[in-house]
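## retry 2 of 3
previous attempt timed out at serialization; input unchanged, resubmitting
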Amino acid sequence: MDDEDELDMSLSDQEERDDRGGAGFHALQAQDSDQAVWLAWELGRQLKDVMDLLERKLRTWDDSQGPSDVEPLEPYKKKALLMGRGAEPTRATALHIMVSNYVLDSYDKFPDEIIRPMIRDFLSEYLASWDKTETEEEKKDKRKEEPILKVAIKLRDNDGFVQQIRESCPTEHLAALLADQDGDGQNALHHIFTWPDDKPRSRTEADAKRVLTRAQELVPLATAEMLAAKDKDGNTPIHYAADSRQCLCRGDDYVDLFTKMVEKADTLMKADKAFSNNDESPITYAQRIWRRLLEMRKREKKDRDGIQEAPATTTIITPSAFSTDPKRVALSTDFNPTTWKDPKDSSHWIVKLGRSNTGLEGGGGGGGDRTVDGGTVSSSKSNIKKTLEGRNSRRMSIADGTKEGFLSDLKRMPPPPPVTPMTSQKKQPIDLKGAKNVMVKSTGTGNNAAAGATKKQPGAYLKIQEFLELHYIRNRPDMEARDLIYGKDASAWTMARAAATAPGRARNGGLTEQAQEPRENPNMGRSDLVSVFDKLSKCGVKRILRLQVDDLKPPAHTDAAIELALKGIESLQLPQGRETAIVFSSWRNQAPAEERQKSREPILVENW
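## retry succeeded, writing output
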């Protein structure tokens, strides 16, 4: 009986094995084979295959989207895209590949309901992978991957992907992406303002507009730590934003954006001194780039113009040159070069510019003019024989008999071009190639049109430079502000030149209007101030070497009030009919004696 039961069980097991080895078993084997082939594909090919399935609506990314009759994507495909890693730094993940091919593979044409859930899941897994990294080797391998926003910012026409990240990414994830640094220590804000290496001086207007658009979108989301972060060279995003090349073709919107960046990061940059590894502040960094651009422009102009040919010169033939000419050897046989003669002697040879058809008359014995190498050489008839027998001067002069002819030649010459006085010349603004201008002319209206046409307003670069100077002067100690504005190695000549040009740079709306003047105390000779000097006077103090009055409460004492307190004047008696108090502008301008009341002897002050 037991043998029969064992036989039945073995037969039933064999039947089950036969069923598994049928059509169902072969289908499972084929599915496993297709999965193995798909998983062996390169990550970019896997992403393209999945995107094709989603575009044709053969699959959905997850169960929460798409029609109910469309099956979701296979779990192994979704997991492979989320966890897969590539070999190249810019194609390290499926998200990197999507960024790189966002426009090339027309991913920007996909509907938002398809692309945004994918980007959201990709970003979550990408940021979670950093938290899972534990060992130093794993962190080193992760650091080789390029940050997502860096890849998106560096590639052109990727504005759509940056917009998708902003709209589909949670706030905390977006902040982490902005702060993510590459191997050079640069975050996303560095990459926005860093000037491309392949464009040393200029770029298209579309590129400049793209940079401004990205900055206006991402800078408001940045924290002070991101704006004050330093790369391997010690430069912050503010350094790169102050670059003179970034300021070209910019308006007040760029200046306002830069101002907000500086004010937000000011607290951290105070503690870190805002200097790069090269001891450059944002001001000195931008000035160095500006000077380099000017030198480059000069070199290009020199190379473009080439070596200029030397101007044409007129050769004056001296009598000593006649000895080398066979035709005139008879004229110079008796020439003695060792002796000199008065240069005013009328017997000297005369050279007149121009051509003459007259030849050498009489074989060299007669007077008149003769042609010498395109010029006309003449001699005085009365002294020609004397000159031929012994000429003892090499210097040329104009003979008295030829002055009229010489002056007539000058009269026939065209008048010289008009020369503009140096005082009326105006320095033109410096224009770099590819830039509209650095100095923008303002337009005038009405009666002030002529005056407005000549008035120039500073461009974005100069406005940023002026803002940084005023910001450092107001918010930094004196010595630190000096180093930030002029550099740590500023010479005395640089400081003197800056002081000399400061009054010329003052204008309405500048420092003169923004500086707050202290309010004066209308009550001249306040009692507490008078009591201090009264106490000193009682102690026998008659002279103060140096006086400095610091008011703890506004408004501050006027100089006139301090002078009255020093002199022991308690009050002023105003004559009848006078409604206002007397204002003292200096020590010499005092009230009349009958209007003063002294209570003690005055105290002399040597220095204020």
